Please model this.
Amino acid sequence: MDGNQSQLKNLVQTRKAFDNFFKSAFTVDNVIFGFDEGDLKVLLIRRGEEPYDGMWALPGYFVYPNEDLDSAANRVLEELTGMRNVFLEQVRTFGKVDRHPFGRVITVAYFSLVKIDAYQLQPASIALQARWHSISAIDELAFDHNKILDACFNRLKWSVKTRPIGFELLPRKFTLTELQHLYEAILETDLDKRNFRKKILSMDLLIDLDETQEGVAHRPAKLYKFDKERYKELEASGFSFELKDGKRKPTRNDKGLLVNSN
Amino acid sequence: MDGNQSQLKNLVQTRKAFDNFFKSAFTVDNVIFGFDEGDLKVLLIRRGEEPYDGMWALPGYFVYPNEDLDSAANRVLEELTGMRNVFLEQVRTFGKVDRHPFGRVITVAYFSLVKIDAYQLQPASIALQARWHSISAIDELAFDHNKILDACFNRLKWSVKTRPIGFELLPRKFTLTELQHLYEAILETDLDKRNFRKKILSMDLLIDLDETQEGVAHRPAKLYKFDKERYKELEASGFSFELKDGKRKPTRNDKGLLVNSN
DNA sequence: TCAAAAGTGTTCTTATTACACCCATGG
DNA sequence: CCATGGGTGTAATAAGAACACTTTTGA
Model:
């Protein structure tokens, strides 16, 4: 028996001592965000099997034995929406002992940003229905999915302030007002129009397309697109994207109580 | 057969269809940070068994079937250091298919901040040795632990700028210079002494203990402690902790090259 | 008396905030 | 001609960055 063989035998025996740990499973769950009609939305499915049959849930599935976590998350997303190469990022893992009735199943949560207008519902065996829900009107979900949703929404709020990812939620061409409304929906606050525009334009990340909206019953807005190349350059040279919440200074209303003026 | 029973039977049968997914395991791995001699350190163990026998690695272990993820991370930390109620937070999960020779094992990474002076090495069966390593002098680790370390160090850099957690790494009583050196070690930058002090003191988060260092061969510095209660109050009323990198403006040296002045 | 680190203010520049009116279009 | 949202600038304030000398102690 040469050295390699004895090392291998050793490894196999050691592995056996850990057999009891190899009885669990993991899944991925995606919080897929979209933006439509000035409202932040999440794509939910109505479950078509036990457990939680019939309840609304985050799209997710077991990770196959030979599948990376990111691949699994992408697969779930693609099966449901048909989309590839979409913004998708791990948030964190939820692993309470009793979170799944099948046994020990931990789930790795991802959040995804999609252009809702490009979305085409795919037939998916697990989903009786898939539907966009306004983030403000979601009630009880299957498993611990409300907690996962909260964590992902918080991550989104955070991310959108420090990286230019909001654009992933808008059509390729958008107006500054659409962009502002997007930020307002995500950050759950109001922003000052002039200050917002000044700030965004000063970053030099938008390309003015010299086009305007058509068929709107008001002065048509200019269209812009996000300049990804430019962002990469700026990032490489130390620039960091930063937007603040629109925290207006608290002022006093006529009852003397602190409020946020508007 | 009543409704509940039929539902249960249904559940059990459904479960069987997923048997193949229940053959994997998960571990937790901790990046335990400490600060000593002006240097940011990480606690590593030298592995005492296969795989990667003899290599330096992050402390970690399998998660027991009836154990929450956070509990497992805390257990690993306590077995190694004897410490409880220490700062510990999940970062993210690493799950490449081939990352572990035993089979499919994903690992949930945590980072922890400890007061290194309070640390007492515990005997731990898995560890031949445990030792603090300067973060700048760590080379090849077992598994994918270098990647995990990077991710956790990045998370630390980020966290330390947005939440007052640096104090977890210092003794209860500390000087402003110690605090500054801590930030400099984490952010890998230099900070301006006067600006740093002005900023930190203006946050009103430190209690001046009216004590000074003793036995130092120079003017003794005042001692402060972190006011956790005060931070909770301020946080609740909308305050947000924020420190910037010490990005000095680039200036030109006499060769005309861009440098950071100091 | 020397070495070593502590401590301290001001000026300049940049970023953030608050705020109100005219413009272009479709109906 | 009206309703709707688009588009614009300035002044006041706050925050950040640059910068150098005196103080206190132990050896």
In short: The domain at 162-236 of chain A is CATH 1.10.10.10 (Arc Repressor Mutant, subunit A). Residues 145-162 of chain A form the longest helix (18 residues). Residues 192, 194-195, 198-199, 215-220, 244, 248-249, 261 of chain A lie near DNA strand C (CB under 10 Å from a C1'). Helices of chain A lie at 3-16, 69-81, 145-162, 176-187, 193-202, 228-236.
